[in-house]
Amino acid sequence: MKYLQKAVLVSAFQMTKERRTTNLEWPNWLHEAWAKPVVENGSLFCSRDYGVMEREILTPLYIQTPQGTKRVEWGDWIILGDEGDLRLMNHDDFMEMHGRMAVGYLGAEEIKKNYNELIMAVSHKYPGESRHETALRYIRSFESYSEEAARAKTEEPAAGQGQKRP
Asked: Using alpha carbons only, what angle is made at residue 78 by residues 8 and 110, rounded to the nearest 5 degrees?
């Protein structure tokens, strides 16, 4: 028998060289992992055994997992587990397991920003409606019109119509 794996939403972050040089894009949970003691499960840390760090050379990052210490390579995905533990996956495996939609996942702040932009694009709301309701009305109306136009293009002309006579 075959079974479909349940879709699970995961919190993940792809570590790149650019994101390593500055932590501005790091999610809060990754900052929390950085603040944990090195030996604690779910911690993120850099190697201290490389001596003096030169400006061009970045010390490698590591995560502490239940299976031991794992080195983070550029392009790897750091995944936050349900218990606050961290897992590591290379890019190809991550894309295969979690799909391409994961890359486009928007955070709550970006969703809020996009929603507000959409709502504020409504310059004239219908009487008795909120901007949200009017925006929804516009979208549904346009999609209904688009579907009707698409159907009209694919329908064959009725017998005798649109056909040349010999």
From this structure: 70
